[in-house]
Design goal:
- The complex is a heterodimer of chains A (120) and B (689).
- Chain A has 120 residues and is an alpha/beta fold.
- Chain A has one domain: Response regulator (Rossmann fold).
- Chain A contains 5 helices and 5 strands; from the N terminus they run E-H-E-H-E-H-E-H-E-H.
- In chain A, strands 2-1-3-4-5 form a 5-stranded parallel beta sheet, with helices on both faces.
- In chain A, helix 1 crosses helix 5 and helix 2 runs parallel beside helix 3.
- Chain B is of the alpha+beta class.
- Chain B has 5 domains: 122 residues, HPT domain (Four Helix Bundle (Hemerythrin (Met), subunit A)), CATH 1.20.120.160; 97 residues, Alpha-Beta Plaits; 63 residues; 180 residues, 2-Layer Sandwich (Heat Shock Protein 90), CATH 3.30.565.10; 159 residues, OB fold (Dihydrolipoamide Acetyltransferase, E2P).
- In chain B, helix 1 packs antiparallel against helix 2, helix 2 runs antiparallel to helix 3 and helix 13 runs antiparallel to helix 17.
- Classes of the chains: A alpha/beta (120), B alpha+beta (689).
- Chains A and B meet through helix 1, helix 3, helix 4, strand 5 and helix 5 of A and helix 1, helix 2, helix 6 and helix 8 of B.
Chain lengths: 120, 689
């Protein structure tokens, strides 16, 4: 089954994402900020990265940029979680190399639908 | 989703604490953008979480506060005192809302609306507070459409954002039947072909009654990375061509690189990774079990000692057993100490409430106050901490209201305009000492004394020491503020403060020098779970007297005994007369020895009253684990709990203040503690009792 790296500084959001995806059979690894995620990503490989944008230490935009510089993450789908309904945050994510976004608030079904859309 | 609520509440309360602290740290007019960002991030997380977990009201309210913070973060809005104050109020509102949701209480709708209105007025966006308005109106162009012609030409770099055209094709097949025609015209010669670039384009025919919005949604993520044209296939409709913007003007500001982590974030991280979150019930269970372990251990120790005495020390196996038992005792003691430490938290949890209080109050009172805290890392038991918060807050209010003078008055006194409020904490023996001091006006002793005389608390010609006068402020119904304020009320309070601290087994005293300032010193036991006790025998029963209550133990000399009418005996202890309490009488036991001469008397003090308790024997002094009577049986007057001794018997722990109170009732109407007419240091509180 596909492996997913879920990055969010909010423990409740992270747990919710991980619980939902694990329930659907995905292999989920959690990270609490961009810095931790980058560390983990360097020594593992994932089919999908889902990251929050606003995080301490390293935000999701920087994480995305950093991941895209790694050869093994050149084409890996990266989704940003964003509460901003305005488009600038989504676009900032896109410009950094993100594949797409999931707008918060979302429910587990919406999350799964989006993940399936990306992972097929 | 419910299983995440607890985590959500916990992290949100933490986030609110961070917001509050950072808001108080904000340098108005010269705000640090990283601090604003930290505040914003907390609000942002709360909004996101509350939306996700279905707490719409919180999400909506937080959205407004977040918008304000966002504007500050972007530098569009100045950080003013007004906005900081409103944001602090918002933090309170969010905390109240979340508390109500967590505990199933009611929200203060009126207050929420008021603060939200203030936020909106500040933002100038009244009425547009709804979160996430739909981005675009729905597109109902599908009437009479048989299908769509989609021209999809990815830009050369589209693959590099992880967007696979095949995925979009799949998504389209879910909407209807598709026919695709690849456009290979842009494909370069093989030698020039970079497999990481995208050269293909497609003409896709999608058949069926499909909503156009559903199609645009498929390409939602790549609208900036491709040329997309979606044309209706219907023969009847006009050839309306709608194209999504191909190259949206590139935003000039590149995404901000991650700000370097602040020191604070760094330190927070390290504490996070070094600790785990455990329910207090689990810790309590361990403490309970360790308590049982201590009892079992001391039981084994006792039996081991007895067997050892019976059989002599010649058996080497016996020696080993005793050695083992001694080791068990050491280990048990260590486990007990470690477990107790789990419950210990730094006093900063209480101190952290104070900056906000000082900020709010000094504004309200028009005073300038600087807060200095030291010893924030001094640890004490969580239960004690929870109960000391309110009395401490009261003392801080009092210091700001009555202690520190307004700036003009301070200037006249030759003091700096800004007053200083100092909080200090340190360990002393088995206690924690908390000092709350101010450099304000001090207690006006003359006024206190006059007031006390007027109220009949002190006789007209009675003279009191300075300490005794200061102590009067803890008396019910004594307030010397000339005008009552809504900050610290009308003298109800100080007596409650003392009562609450006493109920924790602690004490509070005040030292004050007129014109220089006042120091309140609170002394508290580090934990409520164990107690250093003196075991005493009364008849056939063993009781435990808390060591902190004991002043001394003496042998009764009949010369010093004064019987007065009724049942009460008084004992002349140096210059003082103290009532003599026969423990047997208080607890309804038979006393086979009517004479008091030569018997043992433990002199104790509880609630400011001294008394002598007659006991039959003084046994060991030991640490005992307190078992609540209320939980296991019911509340009993005169007893604060029970414990199990090494031999398995139950010993009751005396509540000294309660025993004295019971004794007073029993021996009424005789005044329990008449003041020695010659005594200069007589306690006026007793006279008033």
């Amino acid at each position: 089954m596909a492996s997913i790296l879920a990055v969010d500084d909010s423990a409740s959001m992270r747990q919710m994402v991980a619980f939902t995806l694990k329930g659907a059979g995905y292999d989920v690894t959690e990270a609490k900020d961009g810095q931790e995620a980058l560390q983990i990503a360097k020594s593992n490989s994932y089919n999908l990265v889902i990251t929050d944008i606003n995080m301490p230490n390293m935000d999701g935009i920087t994480l995305t940029k950093e991941l895209r510089t790694l050869p093994s993450y050149k084409f890996t789908p990266i989704l940003t979680l964003t509460t901003e309904s305005s488009s600038d945050k989504k676009m900032a994510g896109k410009q950094a190399g993100a594949t797409g976004w999931i707008v918060k608030p979302f429910n587990p079904d919406q999350l799964l639908a989006t993940v399936k859309k990306v992972l097929g | 989703m419910q299983q995440f609520h607890q985590t959500f509440f916990e992290e949100s309360f933490e986030g609110l604490d961070i917001m509050e602290n950072e808001l108080l740290n904000l340098d108005v007019g010269n705000a640090d953008s990283e601090v604003i960002n930290t505040i914003f991030r907390s609000a942002h997380s709360i909004k996101g979480g509350s939306g996700t977990f279905g707490f719409t009201a919180v999400a909506e309210f937080t959205h407004v506060a977040e918008t304000l913070l966002d504007e500050m973060r972007d530098g569009v809005r100045q950080v003013t005192q007004e906005s900081v104050d409103i944001l602090l109020k918002s933090v309170d509102v969010m905390r109240d809302m979340l508390t109500a949701l967590k505990d199933g209480g009611d929200m203060d709708a009126e207050n929420i609306a008021t603060v939200q209105k203030q936020l909106e007025e500040l933002l100038g966006t009244e009425g547009t507070s709804n979160t996430s308005a739909p981005e675009s109106g729905s597109n109902n162009e599908n009437s009479g459409v048989d299908g769509w012609l989609i021209s999809f030409r990815p830009h050369i770099e589209m693959l590099r954002t992880g967007n696979d055209p095949v995925r979009m094709m799949y998504a389209l097949t879910e909407l209807g039947d598709i026919e695709t025609k690849a456009d290979l015209s842009a494909l370069p010669a093989f030698a020039d072909l970079n497999p990481e670039d995208s050269f293909l384009g497609w003409e896709i025919t999608l058949k069926g009654d499909v909503n156009k919005d559903d199609i645009t949604e498929v390409f939602d993520w790549v609208e900036d990375e491709c040329d997309l044209e979606i044309t209706p296939l219907s023969s009847s409709s006009a050839q309306e061509i709608e194209s999504t913007p191909t190259d949206a003007p590139a935003t000039t500001d590149t995404p901000t690189p991650a700000a370097s982590p602040t020191k604070q974030a760094g330190s927070k991280k390290s504490t996070e990774s070094a600790s785990i979150r455990v329910g207090i019930d689990k810790v309590d269970e361990i403490i309970n079990l360790v308590g049982e372990l201590v009892i079992t251990q001391s039981m084994l120790g006792q039996i081991g000692g007895e067997i050892g005495n019976d059989e002599g020390h010649n058996s080497s196996r016996m020696e080993k057993l005793l050695e083992g038992l001694a080791q068990l005792e050491r280990n048990t003691r260590e486990i007990q100490e470690s477990v107790m430490r789990i419950r210990m938290l730094p006093i900063s949890f209480v101190f952290s409430r104070v900056p906000r209080l000082v900020h709010d109050l000094s504004g309200k009172l028009d005073k300038k106050v600087e807060l200095v805290t030291t010893g924030e890392n001094t640890e004490l038991d969580k239960t004690v901490m929870e109960k000391i918060g309110d009395p401490m807050v009261h003392l801080v209010r009092n210091a700001l209201d009555h202690g520190i003078e307004p700036p003009e008055a301070r200037k006249q006194e030759g003091k700096p305009e800004t007053g200083t409020l100092t909080l200090n904490a340190y360990h002393k023996g088995g206690s924690i000492v908390i000092e709350i001091s101010d450099d304000g006006a001090g207690i006006n002793k003359e006024r206190v004394l006059n007031k006390a005389r007027a109220n009949g608390l002190v006789g007209e010609n009675e003279t009191l020491t300075d300490d005794a006068i200061n102590d009067l402020i803890f008396h019910p119904g004594l307030s010397t503020a000339e005008s009552l304020s809504d900050v610290s009320g009308r003298g109800v309070g100080m007596d409650v403060v003392r009562k609450n601290i006493k109920s924790l087994g602690g004490s509070v005293r005040v030292d004050s020098v007129e014109g220089k300032g006042t120091i309140f010193t609170i002394q508290l036991p580090l934990t409520l779970a164990i107690l250093d006790g003196q075991l005493v025998r009364v008849g056939s029963e063993t009781f435990i007297i808390p060591l902190v209550s004991i002043i001394e133990s003496i042998q009764v000399k009949s010369d010093n005994l004064n019987g007065i009418a009724g049942k009460a005996d008084l004992y002349k202890l140096r210059e003082e007369y103290i009532p003599v309490i026969r423990a047997q009488h208080v607890f309804g036991m038979e006393d086979d020895n009517a004479s008091l001469n030569d018997r043992l008397m433990v002199v104790v003090e509880g609630d400011g009253h001294k008394a002598g308790i007659i006991v039959d024997d003084l046994l060991a002094q030991q640490q005992v684990v307190i078992k609540s009577l209320e939980t296991n049986y019911e509340r009993v007057d005169g007893l604060s709990g029970a414990t199990i001794l090494g031999d398995g018997t139950v010993a009751l722990i005396l509540d000294i203040a309660g025993v004295i109170e019971m004794f007073k009732t029993l021996s009424a109407p005789v005044p329990p503690s008449p003041v020695d007419p010659d005594g200069k240091d007589s306690d006026i509180a007793e006279e008033a009792a």
